[in-house]
Amino acid sequence: MNAIYLDHAATTPMSPTVIAAMADAMANDYGNASSIHRVGRDARKQLDAARAVLAASIGAKPTEILLTSGGTEADNTAIFGVAEARAHEGKHIITTQIEHHAVLHACEKLQKKGYDVTYLPVNEYGVVSVADVEAALRDDTILVTIMYGNNEVGAVQPIAEIGALLQNHPATFHTDAVQAYGLLDMQVDALGVDLLSVSAHKLNGPKGIGFLYVRTNTKCTNLLYGGSQERKRRAGTENVPAVIGFATAVTEAAVKRDAAITAYKQYRTILLDTFEQAGIAYKVNGEQGLAHVLNIMFAGTHVESFLINLDMSGVLVSSGSACTAGSIDPSHVLVAMYGEQAEELRSSIRFSFGQGLSDEIIRDAANRVVAIVQRLVK
């Protein structure tokens, strides 16, 4: 039985165009971009060109793009970097209860060091209130870190509205845009953010590469020390082939974005219509924010046995964040939305779409899901 991969929010297969660009770079752009000879200069030229593509994708300056090993490092650099740089001004941080663990665990670490962290709630659709952000602000608030789009339920946060609010407050504003980048238009000036994290492997690029946008003059100390790479902000020889692959993926995603969003919305409709016609009990978790994420509670099922059955039938999905795979703990996102005793915590599955799918494939997957639900729910 053919496998149907519906876990693109966890990671995406690399685009053939990206693979080709990286293979060419590995063969021809092997120089150290810090070397002054011609091979090094050629690598630097390719690195600068790729960085310009990444910067243009969010309306930033190339000098404001800090290359990282991915979204986790970008989030950690933003949070720990601002906390250390601004500790003398205050130690209060605002975030939400539904952040990725790269943010939540960083904030928990800072709490152990004496920082005060406010974890804002979300509504039943997974969206934080701008009024709650405003009410939580204090004179000693140095950082507000709120994700752009949630990786488990797809809820999109009011980042631009929060950015406008913070124009009248000195707090630094960071958003984890890893799951939304490539699907939503994001211009950093319009959003009002000072820091923005993204990762290449969420949009058919390579793993192990991402960037942190750092607005000019934003106070943010380094995490890594060594050489003078990245304008002395992140030591370590740049991974030129990966950056080229990243820029290639970004360019391709921009060209395909409108068509992809239309397709993902159609896939969502096919799944829900099939479930409806089969008469199975289900409920969509969260708002229809990110088009590629669809989190559904199937009444009467248990997530562990459901996932095993789905895997055996060739439908590859997840129960939420891939970073907690194997954990028996309930989704912290669904807990924040529904409470600790809600059935959604025990019976919810995340479907997420990407390249390589079609209406026919989705319809096949939907029918397989229906058969499993009908077997599991007596």
From TrEMBL:
<dbReference type="GO" id="GO:0031071">
    <property type="term" value="F:cysteine desulfurase activity"/>
</dbReference>
<dbReference type="InterPro" id="IPR020578">
    <property type="entry name" value="Aminotrans_V_PyrdxlP_BS"/>
</dbReference>
<dbReference type="InterPro" id="IPR000192">
    <property type="entry name" value="Aminotrans_V_dom"/>
</dbReference>
<feature type="domain" description="Aminotransferase class V">
    <location>
        <begin position="4"/>
        <end position="354"/>
    </location>
</feature>
<dbReference type="InterPro" id="IPR015424">
    <property type="entry name" value="PyrdxlP-dep_Trfase"/>
</dbReference>
<keyword id="KW-0479">Metal-binding</keyword>
<protein>
    <recommendedName>
        <fullName>cysteine desulfurase</fullName>
        <ecNumber>2.8.1.7</ecNumber>
    </recommendedName>
</protein>
<comment type="similarity">
    <text>Belongs to the class-V pyridoxal-phosphate-dependent aminotransferase family. NifS/IscS subfamily.</text>
</comment>
<keyword id="KW-0408">Iron</keyword>
<keyword id="KW-0411">Iron-sulfur</keyword>
<keyword id="KW-0663">Pyridoxal phosphate</keyword>
<dbReference type="GO" id="GO:0046872">
    <property type="term" value="F:metal ion binding"/>
</dbReference>
<dbReference type="InterPro" id="IPR015421">
    <property type="entry name" value="PyrdxlP-dep_Trfase_major"/>
</dbReference>
<dbReference type="GO" id="GO:0051536">
    <property type="term" value="F:iron-sulfur cluster binding"/>
</dbReference>
<dbReference type="InterPro" id="IPR016454">
    <property type="entry name" value="Cysteine_dSase"/>
</dbReference>
<keyword id="KW-0808">Transferase</keyword>
<dbReference type="InterPro" id="IPR015422">
    <property type="entry name" value="PyrdxlP-dep_Trfase_small"/>
</dbReference>
<dbReference type="Pfam" id="PF00266">
    <property type="entry name" value="Aminotran_5"/>
</dbReference>
